[in-house]
Amino acid sequence: MSAANGASGAAVPPRPVAMRPRLSVVVATYNRVDLIQRLLAQFARQTLPASDFEVVVVDDGSREPVAPHLEKLTLPFSLRVETQANAGAAAARHRGVLAARGEVVLITDDDMQVAEDFLAKHLARHPRGSRNVVIGSIRPDPAISDMPLFERWYAWLNNRIAASMSGPKRRARGWQLFTGNVSFRREDYVAAGGFDKSLGQSEDIELGVRLEKAGCRFEFCTEAYVLHGSDHTSFEKWLKRAHRYGIFDSRVAAKHGDVPQVDPWRYLFEMNPLARPLLAAAVVAPEATRPVTQAVMAAAKLADKAGLKKAAFMGTSVTYAMEYLRGARTEAGSLPKAAKHVARYALTAGRPGQVLKLAKALKEDALQVAKSEYGQPGLKAVAAMVLTSDGYRVLALQRLREAARGLGIPLGNHALRVAQTAVLGVEIGKDVELGSGVYFVHSLGTVVGGDAKVGNRVRFYGNNTVGTAKDDGYPVIEDDVWVGAGARILGPITVGARSRIGANAVVLQDVPPDSVAVGIPARIVPRKDVDGE
């Protein structure tokens, strides 16, 4: 008898092990002890059972530590407080995510307020096995009307961003991620490397870009909203934040040159043409144009007092963009270097860039498709394929559609889509992304809908449907997949690289890489010829 069993011989019961929560909420806080207590009280009233979630608060070196205050609270959920020397929001959130135990992590800010179903709404968007990143909406606190114009401008901007992600034919993208209201799988966060702690701003969009590149699916959930007020009242600090965003967005763009949406120089091409000379002037003469920036903001305030809200917000946008581009100029180091960045953006994302991108895509598609048909094709084989292959014509029209979208010609995109469907028998949705060398062996009857993503060198053998089963999202098909004649791939699922979908199969679940899906509904078996075809 061991000493652990005691003199009576009775077995000592095992020590209870805390259940792993389904969801971990991570909140970084700094000098906001009252606001973080308000938020925790709202988490205590959630409809999601308290056993299903935990909250991790990271105190990023507050002057008055929050731990002693939070330890006094009586809360129904598990709360842990991490304390660190001030290192910035990115480092604090990263520490919180690493400390989290839940499969899904939700990040929000300490100055937010949440409804009672907030956590339940987020968790419902993370079914088992999914790799979703869910961006919730940010609504203005009713008290925002008492805030300065530049803070009310943020609320107006958030509404515009939400509108760009809302609706059945729109979707969220990685570069739209913001840490005020987002949830994702902890495993995906860790695999992507987490927040870049070297970034003093914009670490959220940079993480979003990496998560999307890693294959995560982004969703926008209007119902999972937070209310955002603000304790920022200094116009000078607001300008400094704009300047810092210009600096750090430049660093994000340097890391992700293939994502033009994160390039700060896009403002020179995307903003109202009447504002562009002011933005260019801020880049050419940053200090000399500061009085101009002040004058624009003064005019915006006058418009605000006169009840001209749209004009007031537009003026505030120009004010912000001028200071933001000064930050980008600071990061560039000199006017000639800034000019090189502007030229590079124009040649990649501007009108000249769209033409170059079109030519490159058509060439790459021709080589990929010809290679799949002829092995190592010569020039004659490539030319014959271009002239005779309906499958290549589908791709060529698709690249022209993409160029029309990039050039801001939606009618051209629509007309080419009609031609693609009527002449070649393939219907491809407005927001579908096709990789290079996608080959429609027999094009008639194939539909690729919604915002489905199709990787490189995927082959469709005809009469295929890539769509949604219950209006719950569209598939992601990875590289080198073959889709047999009559097959259906439905729902927010992922078909792994090099997989084979059997003829007439109906695929409703994820297919791992190097697998075969056959039957109705499809059953999944490993490929036996991974090294061959």
Task: Estimate the helix proportion, in percent.
Answer: 40-55%
Q: Assembly type of the shown chains?
A: single chain
In spatial order, strands of the major sheet run 3-2-1-4-7-6-8-5
Strand content: 15-25%
Domain Galactosyltransferase C-terminal: 161-222
Pfam family, one: Glyco_transf_7C
InterPro entries: Galactosyl_T_C, Glyco_trans_2-like, Glycosyltransf_2, Hexapep, Hexapep_transf_CS, LbH_SAT, Nucleotide-diphossugar_trans, Serine_acetyltransferase
Protein name: Serine acetyltransferase
Report on this model:
The structure is a single chain. The protein is of the alpha/beta class and 533 residues long. The chain contains 17 helices and 23 strands. It has helices at residues 33-43, 67-70, 89-99, 118-124, 149-165, 186-192, 203-213, 235-255, 267-270, 276-284, 290-305, 309-332, 335-348, 351-374, 379-388, 390-406, 410-424, and strands at 23-29, 53-60, 78-84, 104-109, 112-114, 132-140, 181-185, 217-228, 426-428, 433-434, 439-440, 446-448, 453-454, 459-460, 465-467, 476-477, 482-483, 488-490, 494-495, 500-501, 506-507, 515-518, 523-526. The protein has an eight-stranded mixed beta sheet with strand order 3-2-1-4-7-6-8-5, sandwiched between helices. Strand 2 (53-60), helix 2 (67-70) and strand 3 form a beta-alpha-beta unit. It is globular and about 70 Å long. It starts with 22 loop residues before the first strand and ends in a 7-residue tail after the last strand. Mean pLDDT is 87; it is low at 1-10 and 12-17.
